[in-house]
């Protein structure tokens, strides 16, 4: 079957991989290559930083971790870390999906994958190419413009526009990269009104973040950079003297719930917000099943 996957972020590429693996003739079409996608800016710690009453989130997370454990891919390491919850919060829904989870008061510790997303995306693009997937980079304005049996709409933030879905909202997220002083664990503080996180990748540490619904630009704000540095250095004091490398902004494709369904000859898979890395492989399996089922 001829399948066009619209989108070259982590969701699009993992879907293309599963479809090609199943024997389909797959082409990826995207406005920009993977290294320019929102996925490439993500912090990359695999657990769902979203609070949604959706049982699929746990299943997709567990499935993605299973895939990442078995790939031996560059840019992926399994590390232990901690998440600080708001006082009195119940156990997170996703806790059963991660490894070796323990809780002490409002502190949860567990082991999960930490993904250096630009490195991993480059490897994944190479892998789908080895499976015969073609990649084309050009603007996409309609899902009906392709000579394909099925189209997979995995275009991230652009997917809502292509689907005529006004439930999609960009949520800006600014991060700061610092030189890694040798951290071995990640840390996330979601006890406050926002979320602060420190995610080490060996050469650099991704520090964040912000949640800015409706943001339309990707220009880093120096005042926000300073605030992120303050919060992250309080969370992890060993970053006090770490050199600042760069600031980046991504626009998360937020939707109240992930849309994953088939409508005619289109399979929609979008609305992952800041959890694309976490949910991608679980969603990709569902995408492939929907395409094959017809």
List keywords for this structure.
294 residues, alpha/beta, FAD/NAD(P)-binding domain, 14-stranded mixed β-sheet, 14 strands
Q: What does this entry look like structurally?
A:
The chain has six helices and 14 strands. It is globular. The mean pLDDT is about 95.
Question: How many discrete structural domains?
Answer: 1
Number of strands: 14
Number of helices: 6
Helix content: 25-40%
The helix/strand class is alpha/beta
Straight-line N-to-C gap: 10 Å
What integer value in Å does the Rg equal? 18 Å
Uncertain stretches = none
Write the layout of secondary structure elements.
Layout: E1 2-6, H1 10-21, E2 25-30, H2 55-71, E3 76-84, E4 99-104, E5 107-115, H3 117-130, E6 134-137, E7 150-153, H4 157-163, E8 169-179, E9 186-189, E10 196-200, E11 204-208, E12 212-213, H5 222-235, E13 244-263, E14 266-272, H6 276-293
Parallel strand pairs: 1-2, 1-7, 2-6, 3-9, 7-14
Antiparallel strand pairs: 3-5, 4-5, 8-11, 8-12, 8-13, 9-10, 10-11, 13-14
Helix pairs in contact: 1-3, 1-6, 2-6
Brief digest:
This protein is α/β, with parallel strands linked by helices. The chain has 6 helices and 14 strands.
């Amino acid at each position: 079957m001829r399948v066009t996957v619209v989108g070259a972020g982590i969701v699009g590429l993992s879907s293309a991989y599963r479809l090609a693996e199943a024997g389909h003739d797959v082409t990826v079409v995207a406005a920009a290559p993977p290294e320019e996608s929102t996925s490439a800016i993500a912090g990359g710690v695999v657990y769902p930083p979203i609070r949604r009453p959706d049982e699929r989130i746990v299943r997709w997370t567990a499935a993605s971790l299973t895939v990442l454990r078995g790939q031996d891919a560059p840019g992926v390491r399994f590390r232990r870390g901690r998440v600080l919850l708001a006082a009195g919060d119940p156990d997170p829904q996703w806790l059963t999906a991660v490894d070796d989870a323990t809780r002490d008061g409002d502190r949860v510790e567990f082991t999960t994958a930490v993904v250096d997303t630009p490195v991993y995306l480059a490897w994944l693009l190479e892998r789908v190419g080895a499976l015969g997937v073609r990649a084309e980079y050009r603007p996409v304005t309609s899902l009906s413009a392709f000579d394909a049996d099925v189209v997979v709409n995995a275009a991230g933030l652009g997917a809502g526009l292509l689907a005529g879905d006004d439930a999609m909202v960009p949520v800006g997220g600014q991060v700061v990269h610092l030189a890694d002083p040798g951290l071995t664990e990640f840390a996330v503080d979601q006890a406050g009104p926002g979320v602060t996180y420190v995610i080490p990748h060996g050469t650099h540490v991704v520090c964040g973040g912000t949640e800015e619904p409706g943001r339309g630009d990707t220009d880093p704000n120096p005042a926000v950079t300073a605030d992120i540095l303050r919060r992250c250095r309080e969370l992890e004091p060993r970053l006090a003297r770490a050199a600042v490398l760069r600031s980046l902004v991504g626009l998360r494709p937020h939707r109240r719930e992930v849309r994953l369904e088939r409508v005619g000859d289109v399979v929609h898979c979008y609305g992952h917000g800041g959890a694309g890395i976490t949910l991608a492989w679980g969603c990709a399996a569902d995408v492939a099943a929907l395409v094959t089922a017809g």
